[in-house]
Amino acid sequence: MRESDQRGYRLTRTVLAVPANRRRMVESAARSTADAIFLDLEDAVPETEKADALQGASSALQELDWGDKTVLVRVNAYGSRFIEEEIRELAPLARLDSIIVPKAERPEHIEAIARAVHTAEGNTRRAPLAIDLLIETALGLVMVESLAQSSARVAALHLGVGDFAGSIGARSAEIGGSPDGYRQTSLSTGARYVETPLDLFAYPMMRVLVAARAFGLRAIDGPCGTYRDLTLTRAWAEKAAALGFDGKQVIHPSQIDATRDAFTPSGEDLAFAARVVDAMLQAEATGRGAVSVDGKMIDYANLRMAQRILMLGAAGRR
Fold first, then answer.
1. Residue pLDDT, tens place only, 284-312
2. 103-161 confidence digits (pLDDT tens)
3. 35, 83, 139, 186: least CB-packed within 10 angstroms?
4. Spatial separation of the C-alpha atoms in residues 156 and 139, rounded to whole Å
5. Residue 314 vs residues 28, 36, 142, 206, 307: alpha-carbon distances, Å
6. Mind listing the domains of the chain with CATH numbers?
7. Other Cβ atoms closer than 10 A to 278
8. Annotated binding site: which residue ranges?
9. Is-contact 240 178, C-beta < 8 A?
10. Terminal CA-to-CA distance of the chain, rounded, Å?
11. How many Cβ atoms from other residues are within 10 Å of residue 279's Cβ?
12. How far, CA to CA in Å, does 303 sit from each of 59, 225, 245, 261?
């Protein structure tokens, strides 16, 4: 789904993860204010409970009221002994919007999964089942551009921050956070040492985002693992929103409000965006391609950014 199609834009500011084998948690997620829910069959489920989790996801998709939420299921990785049965069971279910493929690394694997989905989904669905890709290994990041165009079913790229950090050997104890030792130390004037914290995820976030935008996909950032810390939850969500991501995974309902607010344009942002659009329309009418708004020079690049802000604001009111 390309962002240029504003009428079809689907909000995924908050993507709440919940283990599919925990029925009460699934029911709570369905009642929550998250934009999207993903029922997990992979990392959050012990191997001995995989069958129960699949049955739990299947029954929840058919029995619960999900409102207008986007509903996803994270299946097990390509090559696991579970994924084929998961696709056969889930693909025909009309209420499922997408499956999330974890540890996506090779385009041919995604092509094979897409073929299996095509075979399994039958004629019960109004729209083809989408596939979201979870980029969470060094190889997945290296291959992200090829993965993004591996199938017409691919709808979004998610950054798996915890597994990615582990994949590259980062010494970080908290999911989504940079290691304490990852900082630049320099000698300033006056012979004083200055330490500047650095962001482990600046490069992978940008790489995933650029690949998503290049091929018309959504970009979803990974979660803040310290879910009880709403200051960090909000700050990390604001970073992803400022960069241009469409949303962020959350691992606890307490994170929903702060994360949603970070991805929702403020009234001030919307008002400025509206002034930019109006000013550019007037400029076009007089044959100009740039104009000053609030003391800032504005051109067509600013217009496109303003239109996106207005689109997000309009989508949030629907």
1. 788 887 788 888 888 878 888 888 887 77
2. 999 999 999 999 999 999 988 788 999 999 999 999 999 999 999 999 999 999 999 99
3. 186
4. 18
5. 27, 18, 35, 26, 10
6. 6-264 (3.20.20.60), 268-317 (no CATH)
7. 13
8. 74, 136, 163
9. no
10. 18
11. 20
12. 46, 36, 19, 23
User: Residues forming the annotated binding site for Mg(2+)?
Assistant: 136, 163
∠ at Cα 219 (179, 120), nearest 5°? 115
d(CA 194, CA 209): 31
Q: How far apart are CA 17 and CA 298, in angstroms?
A: 40
Of the pLDDT bands very low, low, confident and very high (cuts 50, 70, 90), residue 4 is very low
**Cα radius of gyration rounded to whole Å, the chain:** 21
Question: How many CB atoms within 10 Å of residue 166?
Answer: 14
Copy the structure tokens of residue 79.
């090559």
282, two tokens: 């007037």
- Which residue ranges are tagged as binding site for substrate? 74, 136
Amino acid type, 90: L
Block residue for tokens 């409970």: 49
Length of the chain: 318
From the list 154, 150, 90, the residue with the least C-alpha distance to 120 is: 90
Per-residue HEC secondary structure of the chain comes to: CCCCCHHHCCCCCEEEEEECCCHHHHHHHHHCCCCEEEEECCCCCCHHHHHHHHHHHHHHHHHCCCCCCEEEEECCCCCCCCHHHHHHHHCCCCCCCEEEECCCCCHHHHHHHHHHHHHHHCCCCCCCCEEEEEECCHHHHHCHHHHHCCCCCEEEEEECHHHHHHHHCCCCCCCCCCCCCCEEEEEECCCEEEEEECCCCHHHHHHHHHHHHHCCCEEEECCCCCCCCHHHHHHHHHHHHHHCCCEEEECCHHHHHHHHHHHCCCHHHHHHHHHHHHHHHHHHHCCCCCEEECCEEECHHHHHHHHHHHHHHHHHHC
